[in-house]
Amino acid sequence: MNLLLTLASQFFFISLIAIGGVSATLPEMHRIFVENLHLISDQQFAQLYALSQAAPGPNLLFVGLFGWQMAGFLGSMVSLVSLCGPTLAIAIVFEKIGARYHEALFYRAMRIGLAPVAIGLLLSTAVLLVRSQFDLKIFTFTVLNIFVMTRWKINSIYLIIIGATLGAIGFFN
User: Fold this and answer.
1) Least reliable range by pLDDT among 31-35, 128-132, 146-150, 157-161
2) Is residue 56 in some structural domain?
């Protein structure tokens, strides 16, 4: 029961900083569950996140997997509800305010001000994932992908197919 309360409280507080999506909170989740509470290992963390991103479905599947790994089925449910509930409430309130005050200076300033926060959180997620499973080939391929996507208007599915093919033939091993 203590573990479920820990999951509920930690994911509740994490939900309050989920600006830019739940993936932006990965570094905080890593700090709490791997470094501070030692509930999962660094390798399990990276593997569960990778598994969730490979599976079809919502982007936040990894939250359920983390909860499952730490406390079984109930851990999975508690983690998802604790993360999604507050975020959903905040999103609804933000949308209601936006519908009513979309031209107001405070609303525009809030939207503009949150963009760099979201970008910073997402960049910290990228650094965390690269640091925990650093491989020069994968890093180089990632930088090349970023370069290609920012330089040319190419559908990212082609880059995903190339990456999957290289992975399947063992290039990244």
Assistant:
1) 128-132
2) yes
Classify residue 57 by its DSSP letter.
S
Contact 12, 86 (CB under 8 A): yes
For residue 79, the one-letter residue type is: S
**Helix (H), strand (E) at residue 82:** helix 61-101
**Upper half-sphere CA count for residue 113 (Cβ side, 13 Å):** 6
24 in a domain, yes or no? Answer: yes
Residue appearing with tokens 């998802």: 80
Residue 19 pLDDT greater than 80, yes or no: no
pTM, 2 dp: 0.68
pLDDT tens digits, 114-149: 888 878 877 877 777 777 667 888 888 888 988 998
Number of domains in the chain: 1
pLDDT computed for residue 81 by the predictor: 95
Domain annotation covers residue 159: no
Q: What are phi and psi of 169, to 5 degrees?
A: -85, 0
Full domain range(s) for residue 35:
2-134
Place of tokens 């760099």: 116
Cα 143 from chain centre: 19
Nearest to 159 by CA among 140, 144, 172: 144
Crossing angle between the packed helical segments 105-132 and 61-101, to the nearest 10 degrees: 160
Does residue 97 belong to any structural domain of this protein?
yes
What angle (nearest 5°) sits at the alpha carbon of residue 116, between those of residues 92 and 95? Answer: 15
